[in-house]
From TrEMBL:
This is o-succinylbenzoate synthase. Mg(2+) binds at D209, E235, D260. It catalyses: (1R,6R)-6-hydroxy-2-succinyl-cyclohexa-2,4-diene-1-carboxylate = 2-succinylbenzoate + H2O. It comes from Hyalangium minutum. The active site is at K180, K288. PANTHER family: O-SUCCINYLBENZOATE SYNTHASE (PTHR48073:SF2), O-SUCCINYLBENZOATE SYNTHASE-RELATED (PTHR48073). Its EC number is 4.2.1.113.
Length: 380
């Protein structure tokens, strides 16, 4: 693979309506699109949409690191293999003068920047899969599935509006609904969850996402009450850095808890998985490639979890279609595909409904069918 040209473009996405989580309210998302061109004119695409409150770098740091990565890539020639891409993001050991691969972190004291790494890694993976003539999912795993189930993210605030939104989602074919909780009184959250459950019946999966917005005591109180409504799981009920609280809450509730923001810190992974001794802190893990630094680190984490008998699924970080396409390919390649992924968020943004790229990765009947085309499969 010979990268003959690199491109970096700013990106902005405006939400249809503000999205409130326990951490913040979002009106727009800003980031960057990356393109890498090889010697035969193929174009690999990547995207960075940093979200510091979820564990990524700030926007200005993201741009700085992407520019450094692209500088290192220009006119580089390296092998057409996943190993070459993995090695590009690793710090070379031993004598740096003997390093034979490409190393992206060429500048000293370059800050950690998972969103920037994600953008460049995704563009490299897209380009490599195109060169090998395979969809990106099958580059990641030969046994990748051809489609992925996704959940519907409900964004209304009031119970009645939330119930109507839930009915529409189920009518469209979604079998898993996700509700943001915390950041409001427990009584209000219970009214919202009750309204959705009554609206859709008992056969639809309900999952909650607290974004770390409860204390341990609040989480126990809330989940004890909300468990009456038949929950599939709850994402990150307590603060991301309080692994012991997550462990204790998981031991007290009957349904699975999913670690989300907690896995943004690589040092936490052995504790969360239970590989450092002791029991896992959660039974399921939420993989955000933007936060984890790319598809390859996320896939490695999923495989580690599977070896421990633990589940994982993929969600976006309120990203654009390039990132969501990459996340969909990753979801199809996971060793454990029993849970719906959180990738049906394109409708949250003000985009052209006739955009071929958006249409290609728009859920139909609660599923995303992956294009059978090389690379990401995004229309040109």
């Amino acid at each position: 693979m010979h990268v003959t040209e690199t491109r970096l473009m700013p990106s902005r996405l405006e939400l249809v309506r503000p999205l409130k989580t326990a951490r913040a309210t979002y009106w727009e998302r800003r980031g960057f699109l990356v393109q890498l061109v090889d010697e035969e004119g193929r174009v690999g695409q990547g995207e960075a949409m940093p979200l510091p409150e979820f564990g990524t770098e700030p926007l200005d740091t993201c741009e700085l690191v992407i520019q450094s990565h692209l500088k290192a890539l220009r006119d580089q020639v390296f092998s057409d293999s996943l190993d070459a891409i993995e090695e590009a993001f690793m710090i070379p050991r031993g004598d740096p003068t003997q390093w034979k691969g490409i190393h992206l972190r060429v500048e000293e004291d370059l800050p950690e920047a998972p969103a920037a790494d994600h953008a460049v890694e995704l563009a490299l993976l897209d380009l490599l899969a195109q060169r090998l003539g395979v969809p990106l999912s099958r580059l990641l795993s030969r046994s990748a599935r051809s489609e992925v189930e996704v959940n519907a993210l409900l964004t209304s605030d009031g119970p009645q509006e939330l119930a109507e939104e839930a009915r529409r989602a189920v009518a469209e074919g979604y079998r898993t609904l996700k509700i943001k909780v915390a950041g409001r009184p427990i009584d209000a959250d219970e009214a919202r969850v009750r309204a959705v459950r009554e609206a859709v019946g008992s056969e639809v999966n309900l999952r909650l996402d607290a974004n770390g917005g409860w204390s341990e005591k609040e989480a126990l109180q809330a989940l004890e009450r909300l468990s009456w409504y038949g929950l599939e799981l709850c994402e990150q009920p307590v603060a991301p850095d309080d692994h012991q609280a997550l462990w204790r809450v998981q031991r007290r509730v009957q349904f699975p808890l999913a670690a989300d923001e907690a896995i943004a810190n690589p040092a936490s992974i052995p504790v969360l998985l239970g590989t450092a001794g002791g029991m896992p802190a959660a039974r399921i893990f939420v993989l955000k490639p933007m936060v984890l630094g790319g598809l390859l680190p996320a896939l490695m984490f999923a495989r580690q979890a599977a070896r421990q008998g633990l589940g994982a699924y993929v969600t976006s970080s309120l990203d654009g279609v390039v990132s969501r396409a990459g996340a969909a390919h990753l979801a199809a390649a996971l060793p454990w595909g029993k849970l719906a992924s959180g990738l049906g968020v394109g409708s949250l943004f003000k985009t052209d409904e006739n955009d071929p790229a958006e249409r290609a990765f728009r859920p139909v009947g609660g599923r995303i069918v992956l294009p059978d085309a090389p690379g990401l499969g995004l229309p040109k």
